Amino acid sequence: MFKRFMTKIYTSTSISDELAARLRAMPKVELHVHLEGATDAATVWDLAKRNKVTLPVETFTEWQRMYEFRDFDHFLDIYRLSVDCMQTAADFAFMLDRFLANQAAQNVRYCEVFLSASFMIENFPQDDVIAVLQEGIAKGKEKYDIGVRFIPDIARHLPETSFPVLDFILKGYEQGIFIGLGLGGPEVGFPPENFVEVYDAARKQGLHLVAHAGETVGAESVWGALTKLKVERIGHGVRSVEDPKLLSYLKETQTPLEVCPVSNYRLKVTPLDEPHPLRKLVDAGVYCTVNSDDPPMFSTNLNNEYLTLAQQGFSWDELWQLNLNALEASFLPEDEKAAYRANFLTFQPSNL
Description:
By secondary structure, the protein is α/β, with parallel strands linked by helices. 49% of the residues lie in helices and 13% in strands. Strands 1-2-3-4-5-6-7-8 form an 8-stranded parallel β-sheet.
């Protein structure tokens, strides 16, 4: 359905079947993907029917067409409609299993997944959600051999949920399934500076800290997340290319960026007829990773993200390094990271 959109994305070269096979087969780590946003249109439709939620359309075909986003605000509207279809803690088990099946198809071995916590804490018993997710992680490891940790995030436009979200995270942190605090939602009108107090409190509790920044707002948003919230990673961050001083700072500090190329094209952060800013970021020495963000909403997956970059001239060596960057930038403890590292280094693409 989205093919006419996808074929418009800038490409500069065709790639060989061998390179495409390498990229699909390589074991991967993903650091920026949203559980709710990774729930495809068919699953949301099923949830709506199961939970008797009325969507503003009559047919599934019409619902699919709603995913043709005009801009970031339109995307947020559909995202919220999708979240509204989730009515019970058991829905998260259903979503997580489907999500992990899709991740397994991309050869993802480990992922750190955002949760829309500002919504969850208002609509679900927190202990039930944590129990369901904990069970889902265990089943996912057994069924798909994928490691998962979650990063619940605060919705910027719901600042009153900040400390309740932190309390929720700390419950899951004790169970070993939540690893950090995130910040998502609309950047415009909700700068990082609004959340300094809760980020300071989370840091004192030992949580890892990330924030979406530099997507729909420019470099000042990234500066705010770095200097005020003191985050360890930046979600997106592609607007950093607008500020040479910021590029120098990111190179010096090697703060990882969670870059989501197709998402940027689909939400018009990057014009469809231009190369993705990742090239400028990499050439500037910035530490970058590749991610899919909300894959079914953007008609993509992690394999497609790498293939898109290959079609823009990124070499195998560059793409493999970006993948290794994700592993090293993860919040895994060093012993687990070392185990994945050793496994990844046994991958021999020349044998494909």
